[in-house]
Amino acid sequence: MNRTVIEPGAILGVLGGGQLGAMFAGAAHRLGYRVAVWDPDPDAPAHRLVRHSYPRPFADRQTFDEFSDLVSVATYEWENVPAALCRELERRKPVRPSSAVLDIIQDRFAQKAYLEAQGFPIPNFSVVTSPDHLREAVERIGFPVVLKTATAGYDGKGQWRIKSETDLPEAHRAMKESLQRGTRWIVEAFVPFERELSVLVIRAVDGTSVVYPTAENEHEDGILRATIVPARIPTPLAEQAGALARQVIERLNGIGVFCLELFQLPDGNLLVNEIAPRPHNSGHYTLDACSVSQFEQQVRVICDLPLGEVRLITPAAMVNLIGDDAANVTRGDGCRALLTVPGAVLHLYGKRTMRPRRKMGHVTFLASEAEIAWERAVMLRDRLAKAATS
Ligand code: AMP
Predict the structure, then answer these.
(1) List of domains in the chain
(2) Quick check: 43 and 352 in contact, CB under 8 A?
(3) pLDDT by residue (tens digit) across 318-369?
Protein backbone atom coordinates (compact mmCIF):
# COMPACT_ATOMS: atom_id res chain seq x y z
CA MET A 1 0.00 0.00 0.00
CA ASN A 2 1.23 3.45 -0.92
CA ARG A 3 1.38 5.29 2.42
CA THR A 4 3.18 8.47 1.63
CA VAL A 5 2.11 11.24 3.94
CA ILE A 6 1.64 14.47 2.04
CA GLU A 7 3.23 17.04 4.28
CA PRO A 8 2.14 20.62 5.01
CA GLY A 9 3.60 22.92 2.35
CA ALA A 10 2.44 20.66 -0.48
CA ILE A 11 -0.19 21.79 -2.99
CA LEU A 12 -3.57 20.08 -2.77
CA GLY A 13 -5.77 20.08 -5.87
CA VAL A 14 -9.54 20.38 -5.77
CA LEU A 15 -11.88 20.02 -8.72
CA GLY A 16 -14.79 22.40 -8.20
CA GLY A 17 -14.58 25.76 -6.49
CA GLY A 18 -17.99 26.29 -4.87
CA GLN A 19 -18.50 26.81 -1.16
CA LEU A 20 -17.36 23.27 -0.38
CA GLY A 21 -14.10 23.87 -2.28
CA ALA A 22 -13.71 27.20 -0.48
CA MET A 23 -14.19 25.62 2.95
CA PHE A 24 -11.75 22.85 1.98
CA ALA A 25 -9.21 25.54 1.02
CA GLY A 26 -9.73 27.26 4.39
CA ALA A 27 -9.01 24.03 6.27
CA ALA A 28 -6.00 23.25 4.05
CA HIS A 29 -4.49 26.71 4.56
CA ARG A 30 -4.87 26.41 8.31
CA LEU A 31 -2.84 23.21 8.20
CA GLY A 32 -0.12 24.88 6.13
CA TYR A 33 -0.99 23.52 2.69
CA ARG A 34 -1.41 25.44 -0.52
CA VAL A 35 -4.39 24.79 -2.76
CA ALA A 36 -5.04 24.66 -6.50
CA VAL A 37 -8.67 25.07 -7.59
CA TRP A 38 -9.87 23.95 -11.01
CA ASP A 39 -13.40 25.12 -11.81
CA PRO A 40 -14.58 26.35 -15.21
CA ASP A 41 -16.67 29.07 -13.54
CA PRO A 42 -14.42 32.12 -12.96
CA ASP A 43 -16.88 33.37 -10.32
CA ALA A 44 -16.66 30.20 -8.22
CA PRO A 45 -15.86 31.49 -4.70
CA ALA A 46 -12.84 29.27 -4.03
CA HIS A 47 -10.85 30.85 -6.90
CA ARG A 48 -10.47 34.06 -4.91
CA LEU A 49 -8.98 32.30 -1.89
CA VAL A 50 -6.17 30.27 -3.38
CA ARG A 51 -2.72 30.74 -4.81
CA HIS A 52 -3.33 28.55 -7.87
CA SER A 53 -6.60 29.11 -9.64
CA TYR A 54 -7.64 27.48 -12.93
CA PRO A 55 -10.90 28.98 -14.21
CA ARG A 56 -10.71 26.83 -17.34
CA PRO A 57 -12.81 24.08 -18.92
CA PHE A 58 -12.27 20.58 -17.55
CA ALA A 59 -11.34 19.47 -21.08
CA ASP A 60 -8.42 21.93 -21.32
CA ARG A 61 -5.25 19.90 -21.93
CA GLN A 62 -2.82 22.56 -20.86
CA THR A 63 -4.60 22.98 -17.55
CA PHE A 64 -4.55 19.23 -17.08
CA ASP A 65 -0.77 19.18 -17.49
CA GLU A 66 -0.16 22.16 -15.22
CA PHE A 67 -2.59 21.03 -12.54
CA SER A 68 -1.39 17.45 -12.45
CA ASP A 69 2.27 18.55 -12.28
CA LEU A 70 1.56 21.02 -9.52
CA VAL A 71 -0.55 19.08 -7.05
CA SER A 72 0.56 16.27 -4.75
CA VAL A 73 -2.94 14.85 -4.44
CA ALA A 74 -6.37 15.77 -5.76
CA THR A 75 -9.92 15.61 -4.53
CA TYR A 76 -13.24 17.06 -5.65
CA GLU A 77 -15.98 19.04 -3.99
CA TRP A 78 -18.93 17.58 -5.84
CA GLU A 79 -19.78 14.38 -7.64
CA ASN A 80 -20.55 15.90 -11.02
CA VAL A 81 -16.94 16.54 -12.03
CA PRO A 82 -15.95 14.31 -14.96
CA ALA A 83 -14.97 10.84 -13.72
CA ALA A 84 -12.81 10.44 -16.85
CA LEU A 85 -10.75 13.46 -15.77
CA CYS A 86 -10.25 11.91 -12.32
CA ARG A 87 -9.22 8.65 -13.96
CA GLU A 88 -6.62 10.44 -16.04
CA LEU A 89 -5.36 12.48 -13.08
CA GLU A 90 -5.04 9.27 -11.11
CA ARG A 91 -2.36 8.06 -13.50
CA ARG A 92 -0.21 10.92 -12.29
CA LYS A 93 -1.25 11.67 -8.71
CA PRO A 94 -3.48 10.09 -6.07
CA VAL A 95 -7.13 11.11 -6.36
CA ARG A 96 -9.25 10.58 -3.25
CA PRO A 97 -11.98 9.33 -3.39
CA SER A 98 -10.87 7.29 -6.42
CA SER A 99 -12.37 7.55 -9.91
CA ALA A 100 -13.74 4.00 -9.52
CA VAL A 101 -15.77 5.13 -6.50
CA LEU A 102 -16.84 8.30 -8.30
CA ASP A 103 -17.99 6.23 -11.30
CA ILE A 104 -20.42 4.34 -9.07
CA ILE A 105 -21.63 7.33 -7.11
CA GLN A 106 -22.12 9.92 -9.83
CA ASP A 107 -24.68 7.88 -11.70
CA ARG A 108 -27.80 7.32 -9.58
CA PHE A 109 -28.58 4.13 -11.46
CA ALA A 110 -25.08 2.69 -10.95
CA GLN A 111 -25.18 3.75 -7.29
CA LYS A 112 -28.55 2.16 -6.61
CA ALA A 113 -27.70 -0.99 -8.56
CA TYR A 114 -24.52 -1.25 -6.51
CA LEU A 115 -26.27 -0.76 -3.18
CA GLU A 116 -28.94 -3.28 -4.14
CA ALA A 117 -26.38 -5.86 -5.27
CA GLN A 118 -24.54 -5.46 -1.97
CA GLY A 119 -27.77 -6.07 -0.06
CA PHE A 120 -28.12 -2.60 1.45
CA PRO A 121 -31.70 -1.38 2.06
CA ILE A 122 -32.87 1.12 -0.60
CA PRO A 123 -36.24 2.20 -2.02
CA ASN A 124 -37.60 0.15 -4.94
CA PHE A 125 -36.37 1.60 -8.20
CA SER A 126 -36.34 1.01 -11.91
CA VAL A 127 -34.19 2.46 -14.69
CA VAL A 128 -35.82 4.34 -17.58
CA THR A 129 -33.88 4.74 -20.81
CA SER A 130 -36.47 6.64 -22.85
CA PRO A 131 -39.40 8.94 -21.96
CA ASP A 132 -41.65 6.45 -23.74
CA HIS A 133 -40.85 3.80 -21.13
CA LEU A 134 -41.89 5.97 -18.20
CA ARG A 135 -45.37 4.52 -17.79
CA GLU A 136 -44.08 0.94 -17.79
CA ALA A 137 -41.48 1.76 -15.13
CA VAL A 138 -44.01 3.58 -12.95
CA GLU A 139 -46.38 0.62 -13.21
CA ARG A 140 -43.57 -1.66 -12.08
CA ILE A 141 -42.97 0.41 -8.94
CA GLY A 142 -46.53 1.69 -8.33
CA PHE A 143 -47.71 5.25 -7.51
CA PRO A 144 -46.49 7.50 -5.94
CA VAL A 145 -42.94 7.70 -7.34
CA VAL A 146 -40.08 10.14 -7.72
CA LEU A 147 -38.50 10.42 -11.16
CA LYS A 148 -34.83 11.47 -11.15
CA THR A 149 -32.24 12.00 -13.87
CA ALA A 150 -29.50 9.41 -13.43
CA THR A 151 -26.72 11.96 -13.72
CA ALA A 152 -26.03 15.60 -12.97
CA GLY A 153 -29.01 16.14 -10.63
CA TYR A 154 -28.54 17.84 -7.28
CA ASP A 155 -30.55 19.90 -4.78
CA GLY A 156 -33.79 18.60 -6.23
CA LYS A 157 -32.83 19.55 -9.81
CA GLY A 158 -33.82 16.93 -12.34
CA GLN A 159 -36.50 15.48 -10.01
CA TRP A 160 -40.25 15.20 -10.42
CA ARG A 161 -42.85 13.76 -8.07
CA ILE A 162 -45.47 11.63 -9.79
CA LYS A 163 -48.35 11.10 -7.41
CA SER A 164 -50.87 9.63 -9.80
CA GLU A 165 -51.77 8.96 -13.41
CA THR A 166 -52.57 12.65 -13.96
CA ASP A 167 -48.92 13.69 -13.33
CA LEU A 168 -47.59 11.35 -16.02
CA PRO A 169 -47.98 13.62 -19.10
CA GLU A 170 -46.20 16.51 -17.35
CA ALA A 171 -43.32 14.25 -16.26
CA HIS A 172 -43.11 12.82 -19.76
CA ARG A 173 -42.86 16.35 -21.17
CA ALA A 174 -40.14 17.30 -18.66
CA MET A 175 -38.18 14.18 -19.63
CA LYS A 176 -38.39 15.08 -23.32
CA GLU A 177 -37.23 18.63 -22.58
CA SER A 178 -34.22 17.43 -20.59
CA LEU A 179 -33.44 14.71 -23.10
CA GLN A 180 -29.87 14.55 -24.32
CA ARG A 181 -28.05 11.70 -25.95
CA GLY A 182 -27.70 8.86 -23.48
CA THR A 183 -29.84 10.46 -20.74
CA ARG A 184 -31.23 7.88 -18.32
CA TRP A 185 -33.59 8.31 -15.42
CA ILE A 186 -34.63 6.29 -12.46
CA VAL A 187 -38.12 5.92 -11.12
CA GLU A 188 -38.08 5.36 -7.39
CA ALA A 189 -40.83 4.56 -4.91
CA PHE A 190 -41.84 7.66 -2.97
CA VAL A 191 -40.80 6.94 0.62
CA PRO A 192 -43.26 8.10 3.32
CA PHE A 193 -40.38 8.65 5.69
CA GLU A 194 -40.67 9.67 9.31
CA ARG A 195 -37.41 11.57 9.19
CA GLU A 196 -34.34 12.18 7.03
CA LEU A 197 -30.98 11.44 8.61
CA SER A 198 -27.40 11.80 7.44
CA VAL A 199 -24.10 10.38 8.57
CA LEU A 200 -20.59 11.56 7.73
CA VAL A 201 -18.03 8.78 7.38
CA ILE A 202 -14.33 9.47 6.93
CA ARG A 203 -12.31 6.49 5.76
CA ALA A 204 -8.52 6.52 5.65
CA VAL A 205 -6.00 4.95 3.29
CA ASP A 206 -5.40 2.13 5.81
CA GLY A 207 -9.13 1.31 5.91
CA THR A 208 -9.83 2.72 9.37
CA SER A 209 -12.81 5.01 9.62
CA VAL A 210 -14.52 7.50 11.90
CA VAL A 211 -18.20 8.36 11.93
CA TYR A 212 -19.73 11.64 13.11
CA PRO A 213 -22.95 11.63 15.17
CA THR A 214 -26.12 11.04 13.17
CA ALA A 215 -27.74 14.30 12.06
CA GLU A 216 -31.40 14.96 11.29
CA ASN A 217 -32.36 16.96 8.21
CA GLU A 218 -35.30 18.92 6.96
CA HIS A 219 -35.64 19.52 3.21
CA GLU A 220 -37.80 21.95 1.24
CA ASP A 221 -38.37 21.36 -2.47
CA GLY A 222 -35.53 18.85 -2.54
CA ILE A 223 -33.01 21.30 -0.98
CA LEU A 224 -31.62 20.96 2.52
CA ARG A 225 -33.21 23.64 4.68
CA ALA A 226 -32.05 22.75 8.20
CA THR A 227 -30.02 20.22 10.18
CA ILE A 228 -30.07 19.38 13.86
CA VAL A 229 -27.43 17.33 15.60
CA PRO A 230 -27.63 15.04 17.47
CA ALA A 231 -30.70 13.71 15.66
CA ARG A 232 -33.80 13.50 17.88
CA ILE A 233 -33.95 9.72 17.73
CA PRO A 234 -33.21 6.93 20.22
CA THR A 235 -29.51 6.20 20.66
CA PRO A 236 -29.73 2.62 19.27
CA LEU A 237 -31.25 3.97 16.05
CA ALA A 238 -28.57 6.66 15.75
CA GLU A 239 -25.94 3.96 16.24
CA GLN A 240 -27.61 1.74 13.67
CA ALA A 241 -27.51 4.61 11.15
CA GLY A 242 -23.81 5.13 11.89
CA ALA A 243 -23.04 1.43 11.52
CA LEU A 244 -24.95 1.19 8.24
CA ALA A 245 -23.13 4.22 6.82
CA ARG A 246 -19.75 2.84 7.85
CA GLN A 247 -20.53 -0.55 6.28
CA VAL A 248 -21.55 1.04 2.97
CA ILE A 249 -18.30 3.00 2.71
CA GLU A 250 -16.21 0.01 3.78
CA ARG A 251 -17.85 -2.20 1.16
CA LEU A 252 -17.24 0.50 -1.43
CA ASN A 253 -13.62 0.66 -0.31
CA GLY A 254 -13.99 4.43 -0.32
CA ILE A 255 -11.14 6.63 0.85
CA GLY A 256 -12.15 10.15 1.73
CA VAL A 257 -15.07 12.01 3.27
CA PHE A 258 -18.52 10.58 2.52
CA CYS A 259 -22.02 11.43 3.58
CA LEU A 260 -24.86 8.94 3.61
CA GLU A 261 -28.35 10.31 3.37
CA LEU A 262 -30.89 7.99 4.95
CA PHE A 263 -34.65 7.74 5.25
CA GLN A 264 -36.04 6.60 8.60
CA LEU A 265 -39.31 4.77 8.03
CA PRO A 266 -42.22 4.95 10.51
CA ASP A 267 -41.34 1.41 11.71
CA GLY A 268 -37.80 2.54 12.52
CA ASN A 269 -36.15 0.80 9.56
CA LEU A 270 -33.58 2.72 7.55
CA LEU A 271 -33.19 3.05 3.78
CA VAL A 272 -30.17 4.53 2.02
CA ASN A 273 -31.21 7.49 -0.12
CA GLU A 274 -27.82 8.44 -1.53
CA ILE A 275 -24.09 8.64 -0.99
CA ALA A 276 -22.09 11.84 -1.47
CA PRO A 277 -18.33 11.30 -1.99
CA ARG A 278 -17.39 14.60 -0.34
CA PRO A 279 -18.18 16.88 2.60
CA HIS A 280 -21.88 17.56 2.81
CA ASN A 281 -24.12 20.52 3.57
CA SER A 282 -25.62 18.62 6.51
CA GLY A 283 -22.10 18.41 7.97
CA HIS A 284 -21.45 22.16 8.04
CA TYR A 285 -22.20 22.16 11.76
CA THR A 286 -18.81 20.41 12.21
CA LEU A 287 -17.10 23.74 11.42
CA ASP A 288 -18.38 25.26 14.65
CA ALA A 289 -19.55 22.39 16.85
CA CYS A 290 -16.64 19.92 16.55
CA SER A 291 -12.91 20.19 17.14
CA VAL A 292 -12.20 18.82 13.66
CA SER A 293 -14.50 19.84 10.81
CA GLN A 294 -15.47 17.69 7.85
CA PHE A 295 -13.21 19.90 5.69
CA GLU A 296 -10.19 19.37 7.91
CA GLN A 297 -10.96 15.64 7.76
CA GLN A 298 -10.93 15.91 3.96
CA VAL A 299 -7.46 17.47 4.10
CA ARG A 300 -6.24 14.90 6.61
CA VAL A 301 -7.61 11.91 4.75
CA ILE A 302 -6.30 12.87 1.30
CA CYS A 303 -2.88 13.62 2.79
CA ASP A 304 -2.89 10.36 4.76
CA LEU A 305 -2.61 12.16 8.09
CA PRO A 306 -4.34 10.69 11.15
CA LEU A 307 -8.10 11.17 11.15
CA GLY A 308 -9.44 13.72 13.63
CA GLU A 309 -11.90 13.15 16.43
CA VAL A 310 -15.58 13.34 15.59
CA ARG A 311 -16.82 14.39 19.01
CA LEU A 312 -19.65 16.88 19.11
CA ILE A 313 -18.53 19.59 21.52
CA THR A 314 -21.93 21.21 21.60
CA PRO A 315 -25.37 20.45 20.12
CA ALA A 316 -26.06 22.48 16.99
CA ALA A 317 -28.68 23.36 14.42
CA MET A 318 -27.97 24.76 10.99
CA VAL A 319 -30.17 26.74 8.62
CA ASN A 320 -29.23 27.23 4.97
CA LEU A 321 -29.46 30.66 3.40
CA ILE A 322 -30.91 29.97 -0.02
CA GLY A 323 -31.48 32.53 -2.81
CA ASP A 324 -32.81 35.76 -1.30
CA ASP A 325 -32.37 34.51 2.28
CA ALA A 326 -28.83 35.83 2.53
CA ALA A 327 -29.93 39.36 1.63
CA ASN A 328 -33.00 39.10 3.86
CA VAL A 329 -30.90 38.07 6.81
CA THR A 330 -28.19 40.70 6.43
CA ARG A 331 -30.21 43.72 5.24
CA GLY A 332 -30.97 46.62 7.60
CA ASP A 333 -31.12 45.45 11.19
CA GLY A 334 -31.18 41.81 10.08
CA CYS A 335 -27.50 41.13 10.59
CA ARG A 336 -27.46 42.75 14.05
CA ALA A 337 -30.59 40.86 15.05
CA LEU A 338 -29.10 37.56 13.93
CA LEU A 339 -25.71 38.06 15.51
CA THR A 340 -27.19 38.98 18.88
CA VAL A 341 -28.76 35.52 19.10
CA PRO A 342 -26.51 33.57 21.49
CA GLY A 343 -24.50 30.90 19.72
CA ALA A 344 -25.33 32.11 16.19
CA VAL A 345 -22.47 31.71 13.70
CA LEU A 346 -22.98 33.26 10.27
CA HIS A 347 -21.24 31.92 7.16
CA LEU A 348 -21.66 33.76 3.85
CA TYR A 349 -20.11 32.17 0.78
CA GLY A 350 -19.33 35.37 -1.14
CA LYS A 351 -21.13 34.31 -4.30
CA ARG A 352 -21.33 37.27 -6.65
CA THR A 353 -24.67 36.42 -8.19
CA MET A 354 -27.79 35.47 -6.34
CA ARG A 355 -30.04 32.93 -8.00
CA PRO A 356 -33.22 31.40 -6.64
CA ARG A 357 -32.45 27.99 -5.04
CA ARG A 358 -28.74 28.83 -4.88
CA LYS A 359 -27.00 28.20 -1.55
CA MET A 360 -25.58 31.56 -0.48
CA GLY A 361 -24.59 30.85 3.12
CA HIS A 362 -25.69 29.19 6.33
CA VAL A 363 -26.16 29.93 10.00
CA THR A 364 -25.23 27.49 12.76
CA PHE A 365 -26.76 27.87 16.20
CA LEU A 366 -24.79 26.37 19.07
CA ALA A 367 -26.50 25.75 22.41
CA SER A 368 -26.18 23.62 25.52
CA GLU A 369 -29.28 21.63 24.46
CA ALA A 370 -30.17 20.51 20.94
CA GLU A 371 -33.75 21.71 21.45
CA ILE A 372 -32.59 25.24 22.27
CA ALA A 373 -30.39 25.32 19.15
CA TRP A 374 -33.33 23.99 17.13
CA GLU A 375 -35.75 26.62 18.50
CA ARG A 376 -33.38 29.36 17.38
CA ALA A 377 -32.96 27.71 13.99
CA VAL A 378 -36.72 27.41 13.58
CA MET A 379 -37.15 31.10 14.42
CA LEU A 380 -34.73 32.00 11.64
CA ARG A 381 -36.25 29.49 9.22
CA ASP A 382 -39.72 30.92 9.82
CA ARG A 383 -38.47 34.49 9.55
CA LEU A 384 -36.93 33.66 6.18
CA ALA A 385 -40.11 31.96 4.98
CA LYS A 386 -42.13 35.06 5.95
CA ALA A 387 -39.68 37.39 4.19
CA ALA A 388 -39.90 35.23 1.06
CA THR A 389 -43.68 35.57 0.86
CA SER A 390 -43.95 39.26 1.79
P1 AMP B 1 -31.94 13.45 -3.49
O2 AMP B 1 -31.28 14.44 -4.40
O3 AMP B 1 -32.23 12.17 -4.15
O4 AMP B 1 -31.27 13.32 -2.18
O5 AMP B 1 -33.36 14.10 -3.16
C6 AMP B 1 -33.49 15.34 -2.46
C7 AMP B 1 -34.62 15.24 -1.47
O8 AMP B 1 -35.86 14.91 -2.14
C9 AMP B 1 -34.45 14.15 -0.42
O10 AMP B 1 -33.62 14.57 0.62
C11 AMP B 1 -35.90 13.96 0.01
O12 AMP B 1 -36.34 15.00 0.84
C13 AMP B 1 -36.63 14.05 -1.30
N14 AMP B 1 -36.70 12.69 -1.92
C15 AMP B 1 -35.84 12.17 -2.81
N16 AMP B 1 -36.19 10.90 -3.13
C17 AMP B 1 -37.28 10.62 -2.42
C18 AMP B 1 -38.11 9.45 -2.31
N19 AMP B 1 -37.86 8.35 -3.01
N20 AMP B 1 -39.16 9.51 -1.45
C21 AMP B 1 -39.43 10.62 -0.74
N22 AMP B 1 -38.69 11.76 -0.81
C23 AMP B 1 -37.62 11.76 -1.64
Answers:
(1) 11-95 (3.40.50.20), 124-189 (3.30.1490.20), 195-389 (3.30.470.20)
(2) yes
(3) 999 999 999 999 998 989 999 999 999 999 999 989 999 999 999 999 999 9
Q: How large is the C-alpha radius of gyration of the chain?
A: 21
Tell me if 274 CB under 6 Å of ligand 1. Answer: yes
The one-character DSSP state at 343 is T
For 1, what's the count of Cα atoms within 13 Å in the CB-facing half-sphere? 8
- Residue to mutate (ligand 1; options 146, 225, 271, 322; most atoms within 8 A of CB): 146
Q: Whose CA is nearest to atom 6 of ligand 1?
A: 222
**pLDDT tier, 64 (very low <50, low <70, confident <90, very high otherwise):** very high
188 lines ligand 1 (CB under 6 A): yes
Q: Cα of 222 to ligand 1 centre, how many Å? A: 6
Beta strands 215-220; 209-211: pairing state: unpaired
Secondary structure of residue 296 in the 3-state scheme: helix
Q: Which residue's CA lies nearest to atom 17 of ligand 1?
A: 190
The secondary element (H helix, E strand) that includes residue 160 is strand 159-162
Are 261 and 79 in contact by the 8 Å Cβ rule? The answer is: no
Whole-number Å distance between alpha carbons of 174 and 178: 6
What is the DSSP secondary structure assignment for residue 130, as one 8-state letter? S
- 207 DSSP assignment: S
- Taking the CA of residue 146 as reference, the ligand 1 atom at the shortest distance is 19
The minimum-distance atom of ligand 1 relative to the CA of 189 is 19
First to last CA, the chain: 59
> What is the four-CA torsion angle of 268, 271, 277, 280, rounded to 10 degrees?
-40
Which ligand 1 atom minimizes the distance to the CA of 108? Answer: 3
Residue closest via CA to ligand 1's atom 8 equals 222
| Structure confidence by residue, pLDDT tens digits, 206-254 | 999 999 999 999 999 999 999 999 999 999 999 999 999 999 999 999 9
